[in-house]
Design brief:
single chain, alpha/beta, eight-stranded mixed β-sheet, six-stranded mixed β-sheet, 15 helices, 37% helix, elongated, binds ligand BES, binds manganese (II) ion, binds zinc ion
């Protein structure tokens, strides 16, 4: 990341530099703040006021007003926050403003925040938005002289903020969490011929080596020994070896708890013999390891930040392919908790890999398990492109995750684990089928998973929708979103502080 971000005590009145982003909360009679009104008269002959009037800027959320000036400030961008701005309004406004600055070819930017946001939460939100807006994944493009597409802003100062300890901590948190998000984004953006199960395992090993985590990767034989028939059933058709990744963060001092995070790690999902017939759907299936990416991104951030909790990061990594060894519809698999599963649809493979990962997690005797998975198209239909589905029988865990969602800005919505829908999973020949009816598909998928957790508080988050976006705006760039890292990090930070 080549973005320098710093807190500077310099007040707005005395700052001089290339580009100023002025974030403004809307008021009934919004007008330009005082020092700028005077400057505008003295230095710019009222050009700024004139532009504001012309563009009818009133600080409404997500509106901007940009002016080129003769100096010493050469570009000034007003960004509206609307009334009652939240941290999410702030992040989006910062993203919007930076995009505008970038399109004006600014390299050095200063941001002036409304007073109430000059606290740790505000600083963290702004800094995260800066890093996330700036990240553009151009790894697979030839370098071109036409650099128009890449982000050019290289230094950002947050004005009128003295670097006190709590604020510096917030800045570090933002930087490490953003780096985790970027790791996740890059893993998801990379296609299936580049990120394979072995690549995911190598990434985990590298994280372990660089940041002092413990890592163990179980291959085919070790998974067989553990009886992971569900995971290995999915892996059978692939020419690539399955990898069960177990990465562990242990705090240096006392530990106040023990948690497990599981990420679905299908580096490609063709559907298997129930092949995905829609060209666009199958072409998106490099994103089917978005849960794994989020878990690895979180591991990176947590290892760098250090928290008094032991955290286990688990990924059952493989691909869902077709070959002479592929699962046949109708096959029966035995998972590592001895439950038998009739495969009535080979495209419902994620839940099979998660089943064995959940059993493994429970054996670790953790206080709670959270899994993130691009699990169902049904969840995309239910909640639309930005919101993940939260499924949990545990009230406390639900409230914790909803709170983390609220402050991190990664949206989740609680969905029901309707017990009566279990009927849809009943099989004539085995303990259960892997898919129920089309209706309520996200719910039956979650109910399927519930069969593999017995006593540990558990939550499942279906991230099929937010793993990827075609929209650009605010602090969101097109492509992989790195969804889940901010949510999980916030949940872990909250848990670390609460006990
Ligand atoms: N990986 C897909 C789910 C998915 C869909 C992720 C769209 C991202 C975007 C999953 O393995 C799958 O194929 N699910 C099936 C389940 C069905 C067979 C019950 C689905 O949603 O169609
Ligand atoms: Mn599938
Ligand atoms: Zn899948």
């Amino acid at each position: 990341m080549s973005l320098a971000l710093e807190l500077v005590p310099t007040p707005l009145e005395t700052w001089e530099g290339e580009c100023l982003l002025l974030l403004q909360t809307a008021t009934p009679e919004w007008h330009l703040p005082q020092p700028l009104r005077d400057w505008d008269q003295q230095r710019w002959q009222g050009l700024l006021q004139e532009t504001i009037q012309e563009t009818q800027f009133t600080a409404k959320a997500q509106t901007t007003c940009a002016v080129r000036l003769p100096g010493p400030i050469r570009k000034l961008i007003l960004v509206g926050l609307g009334d009652n701005p939240t941290l999410e309004t702030l992040r989006r406004a910062v993203g919007t403003g930076l995009r505008q600055a970038n399109s004006l070819k600014a390299k050095q930017v200063a941001i002036s925040l409304p007073e109430p946001f000059r606290d740790p939460q505000g600083v963290r939100a702004v800094a995260e938005a800066c890093y996330l807006t700036a990240h553009q994944d151009t790894r697979f493009k030839s370098p071109s002289p036409d650099s128009d597409k890449s982000f050019q802003v290289s230094s950002i100062s947050l004005l009128a903020i003295s670097p006190q300890p709590a604020l510096t901590v917030a800045l570090t948190q933002a930087q490490e969490i953003a780096a985790g998000v970027i790791l996740a984004r890059e893993l998801v953006n990379a296609p299936a011929n580049i990120v394979t199960p072995v690549t995911l395992a190598e990434t985990a090993r590298q994280l372990a080596q660089t940041y002092g985590l413990e890592v163990e990767v179980l291959g085919q034989a070790e998974c067989e020994a553990l009886g992971m028939g569900a995971f290995l059933g999915v892996a059978k058709a692939s020419d690539l070896p399955p990898q069960f990744i177990h990465l562990t963060y242990k705090p240096t001092g006392e530990s106040r708890g023990k948690l497990a995070l599981i990420g679905k790690g299908l580096t490609f999902d063709s559907g298997g013999l129930n092949i995905k017939t829609d060209t666009r759907s199958i072409a998106m299936m490099k994103t089917d390891m978005g849960g794994a990416a989020a878990v690895l991104g979180t591991a990176r951030a947590i290892a760098r930040l250090g928290i008094p909790l032991e955290v286990h990061f688990l990924v059952a990594a493989t691909e869902n392919m077709i070959s002479g060894r592929a699962l046949h519809p109708g096959d029966i698999l035995t998972a590592s908790n001895q439950k038998t599963i009739e495969i009535n649809n080979t495209d419902a493979e994620g839940r099979l890999t998660l089943a064995d990962a959940l059993v493994f997690a429970e054996k670790l005797e953790v206080d709670a398990i959270v899994d993130l998975a691009t699990l169902t198209g049904a969840c995309v239909i239910a909640l639309g492109s930005e919101i993940a589905g939260l499924f949990t029988p545990d009230e406390t865990l639900a409230q914790e995750l909803l709170a983390a969602s609220h402050s991190s800005g990664e949206k989740i919505w609680r969905m029901p684990l309707e017990e009566s829908y279990n009927e849809g999973l009943s099989s004539l020949v085995a303990d259960l089928k892997n898919t129920g009816p089309r209706e309520g598909g996200a719910i039956t998928a979650a109910l399927f998973l519930k069969n593999f957790v017995h006593k540990t508080p558990w939550a499942h988050i279906d991230i099929a929708a937010p793993v990827w976006t075609e929209r650009e705006g605010g602090y969101t760039n097109k492509g992989a979103t790195g969804y889940g890292v901010r949510l999980l990090c916030q949940w872990l930070l909250n848990r670390a502080n609460q006990n």
